[in-house]
Amino acid sequence: MTKALIIGGGIAGAVTAMALQKAGTEAEIFEAYPTGADDVGAFLVVFANGLEALRVIDAHGPVVDHSFPAQRVELIDDRGTRIGERPLSGVAQGAELGPRTLRRATLYQVLHAEAARRGIPVHHGKRLIGAETVHSSEGKRVVASFADGSAAEGDLLIGADGLHSVTRTLIDPAAPRPRYTGQNTVCGYTPDAKNPPAPNTYTMISGKRAFLGCTLAPDGSVWWFANVPGTELDRTDPQAADPAEWRRTVAALFDDDDTQAAALVRATGERITVSNAYDLATTPIWHTDTMVVLGDAAHAAAPNAAQGASMAIEDGIVLAKCLRDQPDPGSAFTAYEALRRERVEKVVAASGGMARRNASGAAGQAALRAERTRAEERPQGDGTDDRDWLTGYRIEW
After folding, report:
1. Residue 305's pLDDT is what?
2. With left for phi above 0 and alpha for psi between -120 and 50, is residue 90 left, alpha or beta?
3. How far apart are CA 298 and CA 323, in angstroms?
4. pLDDT tens, 253-280?
5. 380 CB contacts (<8 Å, ≥6 apart)?
6. What is the sign, positive or negative, of the torsion defined by CA atoms of 151, 155, 159, 161?
7. Residue 245 in contact with residue 256, Cβ under 8 Å?
8. Which helix (H) or strand (E) holds 104?
9. Residues near 179 by beta carbon (within 8 Å), at least 6 away in sequence
10. Is the Cβ–Cβ distance between 61 and 111 less than 8 Å?
């Protein structure tokens, strides 16, 4: 049986391992960190396309069980004026599995629990430092070397090791680095918010100096995120400032607005998570004949489209299908890239456009009003959504 070494134990790694198992390929996961569930305070949305991809490997159930739905987006400007409302992308198509919100750590945990239930081994504390292809009478093999002095051998190596991927640089030492977008993403949880958003709704507030989105969780708390301008933080410790300092900083950015954003942030406790926002528009070389990258290691969108997890899930399923259907890893990687590159690069571009529309200041307000004009010109009740190409994507296994 063909054996795959998966580098990276995040969402992409767990999904890819389960998809490979379904396709008849043995897989082992090698995770750099001693434990998982990093970035425990952040939350994300898995859209219909991501959930339908999980359905292919029958892994959607635990995600649905540990998340809550969202059906619409409400747009608010800096004066508190309601600009408009539209279905959240994925709802307009009447998808059986609509968008679901959950903590990143929860998604990690439920996927890893499902992978473990299926007997997929995960090795922690394995930081990749090198990989080489060796030739023998049995064909090509890839040998991965780890910082602890150990090694592993398989028929192929899959880099699911994220934005700052080591695998990407092993495949192509000249590969571009992720671009810092000039924004920090701050996530928080407010237990007793006044004037919370309506149920099943994401309220998006475009302020003069920052952008905030929030939604009401089933326990009555408000989960919020803010895109705020700032310098790139230390990747090893982005939360060097304490939560109280971040709370003051973010709230102050909304003080000049006539919205609920500043009060919502100030009512937040200590559960605040901060990260840098990056994108990676294109990676020229995705693979060799024995190594390949997927998810954020191959492409990364700014967080505005909220498609990072769903794109990684799609990648893993498509790659596994290609490895099942093609005669050798090199041919499978070529087929996988042909199926995925155009779509994921379009997502990166679309998310960049959303970032501009969600900008603070005059540009953001003009974009919001353009959104209202488009909504007013759209025939009522036609159920259309200009992003059906994004969330309407389905994988035929």
Report:
1. 84
2. left
3. 18
4. 999 999 999 999 999 988 899 999 999 9
5. none
6. negative
7. no
8. helix 104-117
9. 278, 279, 280, 281
10. no
pLDDT < 70 regions, the chain: 36-41, 89-96, 238-241, 355-387
The CA dihedral of 142, 143, 144, 149, to the nearest 10 degrees, is: 180
Instruction: List the one residue out of 131, 120, 126 whose CA is nearest residue 290.
Output: 131
Residue linked to tokens 């409400």: 74
Could you give the CA distance from residue 89 to residue 20 in angstroms, rounded to a whole number?
A: 29
Dist CA 262 CA 328 (whole Å): 56
Q: Are 380 and 232 in contact (CB under 8 A)?
A: no
- β-strand partners of 44: 102
* CA–CA dist 291, 179 (Å, integer): 24
Radius of gyration (C-alpha) of the chain in whole angstroms: 21
CB 115 within 8 A of CB 10: no
State the distance between the two ends of the chain, measured CA to CA, in whole angstroms: 20
**What is the Cα 82 distance to its own chain's centre?**
28
CA–chain centroid gap for 243, Å, is 24
Length of the chain counted residue by residue: 397
Task: Read off the tokens for 90.
Answer: 């994925």
| CA 241 to each of CA 8, 10, 52, 159, 244: distance values in angstroms, whole numbers, following the listed order | 28, 26, 39, 32, 8
What is the value of pTM for the model shown? 0.90
According to DSSP H, which parts of the chain are helical? Answer: 11-23, 48-56, 60-65, 104-117, 166-171, 243-253, 261-266, 308-325, 329-357, 361-377, 388-391
Calpha distance 191→171 (Å, rounded): 46
b/e sequence 224-256, b meaning 16+ C-beta within 10 Å: bbbbbebeebeeeebbeeebeebbebbbebbee
What is residue 86's three-state secondary structure?
Answer: strand
